[in-house]
């Protein structure tokens, strides 16, 4: 039995259910006497480096319960990429607070940090159980079937696109271009097509997995708009040209060294108006897509909570150097169970949207994706009516 304290930290952009994973981990930790004090790092890696920890075990149960319906990160997050020079301070923090169980809730970069901390502990001879908890609305973590956070973001994208389509159809005087999150992977934008068969207007979808062709795009816009039903275009923020250059580049780089997209929806609207003479307006939900608890997927929330609990159970049982993953079956009915994936397999690895699920026109999504994604978003009443 390894006795000591536990530390959980959040890394990268929050999701609608990141706090559900936190809640699952804290609740599970309280069941194990091996874990003496339950700490949370304030603002992720920044809190670890500063020794700024929160005693989560001292938080009243009534306040902890609110985590399940709280957006963003209740303990704070950051985009701090740890350098080689930072790791001695990390180890010092663990020793000072007698941390023997460490959980990092994050995406690709965070799993890389988690893996490095695991190796640091091994090389230093410091007994530490390290488990990564998956978190990303982008759904781009490798190996796992899907990621906590994606189901809710997908539900937001699907519902928002269907609602925007109603507006585009009711007043078909302009092209509506909606930009959704997804720097390198188009999973969220693909979800905007989940209810394509119910849309009263035309719909085009562009993902970063395909090269953006300006002339083909403008031709498709002219053709679809001419049908008189209205047109909705949904795009990933990270769409790019054939040479790899982004359609819109802010010129800014984030804390992990990634280029920050620079407003692709407005860029396409400007292009449409300049090249076709059609009116166009841009919509960019942006952070709303990852902070909406009103459209939180109950399936996503339950799985996120179980991911946090599974991480703690696994560590107490002696596992270390893994990330919690999901294995899912969709026939005859949706079922999902947790598994453990070696951190080295997911650190900095990106899972792109499958090319086989993109239509031949490069601007539509095949039905296979709906079969994959629909169970993850759970129930949504998408019955609308038109009296026109």
Task: Describe this structure as you would to a colleague.
Helix content is 36%, strand content 20%. It is an alpha/beta fold. The strands form three sheets. It has a seven-stranded mixed beta sheet with strand order 3-2-1-4-5-12-13, with helices on both faces. Strand 4 (99-106), helix 5 (108-124) and strand 5 form a beta-alpha-beta unit. Helix 1 packs parallel to helix 11.
List keywords for this structure.
single chain; 388 residues; alpha/beta; seven-stranded mixed beta sheet; four-stranded parallel beta sheet; 36% helix
Could you provide a short overview of the structure?
This protein has 388 residues and is of the alpha/beta class. 36% of the residues lie in helices and 20% in strands.
Spatial separation of the terminal alpha carbons: 69 Å
Per DSSP, the total helix count is 13
Strand order of the largest sheet: 3-2-1-4-5-12-13
Question: What's the quaternary structure here?
Answer: single chain
Helical amount: 25-40%
């Amino acid at each position: 039995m390894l006795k000591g304290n536990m530390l959980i930290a959040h890394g990268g952009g929050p999701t609608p259910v990141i706090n559900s994973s936190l809640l699952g981990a804290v609740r599970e930790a309280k069941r194990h006497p091996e874990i003496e004090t339950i700490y949370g790092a304030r603002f992720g890696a920044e809190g670890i480096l500063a020794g700024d920890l929160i005693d989560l075990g001292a938080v009243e149960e009534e306040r902890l319960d609110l985590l399940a319906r709280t957006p963003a990160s209740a303990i704070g997050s950051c985009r701090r990429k740890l350098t080689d020079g930072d790791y001695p301070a990390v180890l010092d923090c663990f020793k000072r607070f007698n941390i023997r169980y460490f959980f990092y809730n994050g995406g690709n970069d965070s799993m890389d940090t988690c893996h490095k901390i695991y190796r640091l502990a091994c090389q230093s001879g410091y007994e530490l159980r390290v488990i990564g908890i998956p978190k990303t609305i982008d759904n781009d973590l490798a190996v796992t079937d899907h990621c906590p956070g994606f189901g809710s973001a997908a539900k937001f994208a699907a519902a928002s696109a269907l609602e925007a389509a109603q507006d585009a159809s009711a007043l078909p005087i302009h092209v509506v271009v909606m930009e959704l999150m997804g720097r390198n992977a188009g999973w969220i934008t693909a979800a905007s097509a989940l209810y394509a068969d119910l849309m009263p207007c035309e719909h085009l979808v562009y993902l970063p997995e395909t090269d953006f062709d300006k002339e083909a795009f403008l031709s498709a816009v002219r053709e679809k708009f001419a049908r008189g039903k209205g047109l909705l275009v949904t795009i990933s923020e990270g769409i790019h040209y054939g040479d790899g250059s982004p359609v819109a580049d802010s010129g800014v780089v984030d804390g992990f060294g990634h280029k920050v997209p620079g407003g692709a929806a407005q860029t396409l609207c400007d292009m449409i108006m300049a090249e076709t003479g059609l009116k166009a307006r841009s919509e960019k939900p942006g952070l709303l897509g990852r902070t909406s608890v009103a459209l939180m997927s109950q399936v996503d929330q339950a799985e996120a909570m179980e991911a946090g609990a599974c991480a703690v159970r696994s560590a107490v049982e002696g596992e270390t150097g893994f990330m919690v993953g999901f294995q899912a079956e969709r026939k005859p009915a949706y079922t999902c169970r947790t598994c453990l994936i070696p951190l080295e397999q997911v650190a900095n690895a990106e899972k792109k949207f499958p090319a086989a699920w993109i239509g031949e026109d490069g601007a539509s999504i095949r039905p296979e994706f709906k079969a994959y994604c629909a169970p993850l978003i759970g129930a949504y009443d998408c019955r609308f009516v038109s009296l026109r």
